Amino acid sequence: MKYADLHAHTAESDGTYTPVQLVREAVARGLSAVAIVDHDSVGAVACALEEAKETNCEVIPGIELTAQQDNQEIHILGYFLDYQQAALLDELKLVRQNRVERVYKIIENLKESGIELNAQTVFNISGCGTVGRMHIARALVKDGWVSSTSEAFRKYIGDRSPAYVLGFRFSPAEAIKLIRDAGGVAVLAHPYILENDGLIAEFARCGLQGLEVYYPEHSQSLVNFYLDLAKKLDLLVTGGSDFHGSAKPNIKLGAIKVPLELVEKLRQATEPTLNNGYIG
Ligand code: AMP
Ligand code: FE
Ligand code: FE
Ligand code: ZN
Question: Are 45 and 61 in contact (CB under 8 A)?
Fold first, then answer.
């Protein structure tokens, strides 16, 4: 049986593997496909595609777009999108600028907990990739404020913690549209984080095409629940490990994998765009 891991991050966002290292890891683990879905960036895709050429592992160009609704962060995965589309790249640039501003806001909030963190420490860790909370967590570990990134999330920067800042540009509907306009397939990431499952039907009405049913935090009963929901809402079923390298050391690449047939269903759901040659 052939398998794919449809959720992996590189150092282009908050993972720690370079695109080349990620592809080599996917090959070493016997995966037939791996989707690179960095937060708000497609910067790792070209390099990973190049590395995968001589292997029997396919790299699926992807993204994990950050959106917000009802005061919560919602992640929309995009697969097989045109990672060179100018309109997409322009929007992503703006999102990443917002994220830089958000780092300063979170650092302001941390002061109220008595923490003095230098923004440059965070930016040194993120390098030229998408900056986010994982980099802040790593900076907090580096400066000795916490002993692990999970402690940083639990005490300070988790979704319901005191220093958390939301402030993203897109609604889920806009994120879905951006992905589909770039020829990609839009899938809701790790639905367990939603406070209200009713939103999933709403997203489906906005053009959502799939649900990330298989995910490390999903228990068997939750998997069954989402399988049922995907069937009712006519959504594709996907899954992946949310690999972040040593930033999430307990999650190995391929820890969650799905049969390769699901990749073919995703591929069939892609849309023609004006510049990918399918429309004459
Ligand atoms: P951001 O996009 O800046 O809001 O950060 C989201 C990322 O932070 C996720 O992709 C995870 O990598 C990480 N994250 C969020 N919550 C937690 C948590 N409770 N424990 C560990 N990592 C987390
Ligand atoms: Fe992440
Ligand atoms: Fe996510
Ligand atoms: Zn992710």
Answer: yes
Residue closest via CA to ligand 1's atom 16 equals 158
Q: How far apart are CA 90 and CA 43, in angstroms?
A: 13
| Side-chain half-sphere exposure of 45, counting CA atoms within 13 A | 23
- pLDDT tens-digit map of 229-278: 999 999 999 999 999 999 999 999 999 999 999 999 999 999 765 555 44
Whole-number Å distance between alpha carbons of 226 and 73: 19
Token reading at 8: 């992996």
First to last CA, the chain: 38
Order of all β-strands in the sheet with 58-69: 236-239, 210-214, 185-188, 72-79, 58-69, 33-36, 3-8, 258-259
Token digits of residue 235: 């959504």
Any ligand 1 atom below 6 A from CB of 98: no
Among all bound ligands, the one having the nearest atom to the CA of 159 is 1
Which residues have CB atoms below 5 A from the ion given as ligand 4? Answer: 64, 242
**pTM (whole model) above 0.70:** yes
